[in-house]
Amino acid sequence: MARIPGSYLIFIVCLGLLGACNTRKYLMPGQLYYNKSEVKVFGKDSTKVPISIKTELDGLLISKQRGVILGSRVGVWMYEQRKRHKPILGFIYKQFAKPPLYFDYNKVSQVSRLLENRMGNHGYFGTRAEFDTVRHRNGVDVKYRVYPTVPYRVKNITLDVSTETVIDSLVREASGKTLLKPGQRYNLARMRKERTRITEYVRNRGYFFFNDNDILFLADSTVGHRQVDLTLTLKKDIQAHDTLIYHTDTARVYFVHHEPPDSLKELHLHSSVKKDVRFFSKRKKTTRLKVIYPAIYMKPDSLYRYSNYQRTIRHLSGLGVFKFVDLRENANDSTRIIQPDIFLTPGNPKSVQVELGGSTNSEGYAGPELSLAYNHQNLFRGAEHFTFQLKGGFLKEFGESSDFDRIYWLGVNANLNIPRFIRWIGKPPETKNFIPLTKIGVSVQRYDFSSILTLDYINTTFGYQWQKTSNYINRFDPIFISYQRSPNSDSILIDLKKQFPLLGQSIENQLIIGSSYKGTFYSSLDVQETNRIYDAFTIDVSGNILYGLFRITDPSRDVDKEPYKVLGLDFSQYLRFTNDFRYYLRTSKRSNIATRLLLGLGVPWGNSKSLPFIMQYFIGGPNDLRGFRTRTVGPGSYQPPDSTATTFFGQGGDIKLEGNIEYRFPIAGIFKGAVFVDAGNIWLANNDPDRPGGKFSADKFYKEIAVSSGAGLRLDFKVVVIRLDWGIPLRKPYLPEGKRWVIDKIDIGSSSWRSKNIIFNFSLGYPF
């Protein structure tokens, strides 16, 4: 008798269960389920609609029925079963049960009108929206069609405001930096934003009750074909108190749990805290008043400013120690005084987290990870955020295995973030709108490489992080210390260097004492934006001060033969610049093109002839050249004679040039796809006789660019993205000139070619 394999049996059982989930019996006569809807915009040339508007139209559609598996409404079936008191395991019900959505012609028709209205808000007046329904057994799909018109554009912008009152003058001043320009497409959202901007400008000068409704835009569409004139003016019947100036009274801060505010007692203030804020609490205060006071910008007898209200809310919330922050502004019309009452509800500052997950690194290793972390949001009652973390894991190399194909690691990290500048030399940067951080970190990690080699890493940092604007983050570490050592005996290390020449300095004891700065720019944090830019610029400097001191005390030493030492170790001296630029272009609601250009330059000098291993650049692997094995490309046209050498330590360089382009698109559900092209290489700043062809040369570097291409699958679980990429080399820089392009050598049908050239990459998250 033939046997059915277990996998096929499970598949047949699942199909049977899905078939049993018949939901048609729950429908009333004439009733149908709603499945999903889609919208297609038929615009081209002069009526072409931007992607951002198409994405906005998608957001107006009725959400599709959830809980559908392979076309079967499993979630609805579970919901109906539970409603009829039939047993469904609780946790399964919570995860999968979904209430049914029914087809409603009126709602579907209403969406059609919403689509037309939204197009009008963007200047496409007269746009027509239609829809068809497609029935699938007991469900209905809705397909909308939008036929846009030629959009209206702004011809002239006129300011119709007198100069009779102070408010008139303020509105005229604010209009000088208008967001509206002639030639722009008519855009209701931009006009509302302009109105809000002017309102905030006026409110920041004491006019507490002035609001958006006091400003009007008049539109005249008779001035030309598909053109409109806009006139900004003030409402004629503005209420009297909208034109009155208000001042701020002494802010009252209430630390509340569940007590009514009138039961709280006023706290005695230390002499170091000014008396222009009053604090009330019934219990022992959990956060020092000296820390809270600077976060309150609303001071007594000062002109009311809406920006101070915003800053106060932002800073108090940003301290991270309060569960709720509620700021109420009570106006007294007779005295024209605003009384700020701030209600702060302390949160629980302590937490313990245990996480079992997975981790990957840029070298192409992946594996399980266990983490135990203790967090305290208010360690010294000054909103200091302390984290102590114990982590450990196992990493396995994917693809072709090397001698170091397994890594066991264990680490301890301690980090303290203090919400203010500590020990800043001179005047600290201005950070009115954002809370600055002083960051202190210590980490100790041990790596065991296949029981062959053990390395310890000790890192300490002291630095600052601050922002002046919402889209630029500064990070400055005036000092960081990095120390690498191996507990293996000298004889073992010597044998390893002989066996694996590429290891070189990467397993030697190393000491780095330096400083670093990183500036990160985001054009927008909204992933739905049509165009987004990310740019991170990093400068690392090491050893210069130490080198200068040693040159004073021992100027005659020849550092090429005998470098200066600290604690018996050669210290590193170098300058290192890295710029990572990324541009994202959204092509539809769920697809986009991502690009990256990375430039890196390291200059060793003085006490060092090369960059320390952990500061070198590498290329090849899951996050850059995905058609080459990890860290196997470069430097330049060099190829190590032993192609089986370890890929973890790989081939490093002082200069890096890399470019990537990737098209990302949806497939179905959590499954997303990508096609990509990667190009780049690394080079040496100085000649190395052991690595011929590795030195950078301006007249031939472009001939040594490696190129790869491929496709990938992503499983997007929202909280984590599992990435699977398959890449192939298109250009190999280590081949003789004239033979480096290998596109004509591609032979998918050959198993030998596939095993040598198709590189599988597994990682978590997107490569850029």
TrEMBL record:
Q: Where is the Bacterial surface antigen (D15) domain?
A: 569-765
Q: Where in the cell is it found?
A: Membrane
Ranges for domain POTRA come to 153-212
Q: Does the keyword Transcription apply?
A: no
Q: Which domain of life is it from?
A: Bacteria
Keywords from the named record: Cell outer membrane, Membrane, Plasmid, Signal, Transmembrane
Cellular component (GO) terms are: outer membrane
An example of a Pfam family matching this protein is Omp85
Protein name as catalogued: Membrane protein
Protein's organism: Fulvitalea axinellae
Q: Lineage in the entry?
A: Bacteria, Pseudomonadati, Bacteroidota, Cytophagia, Cytophagales
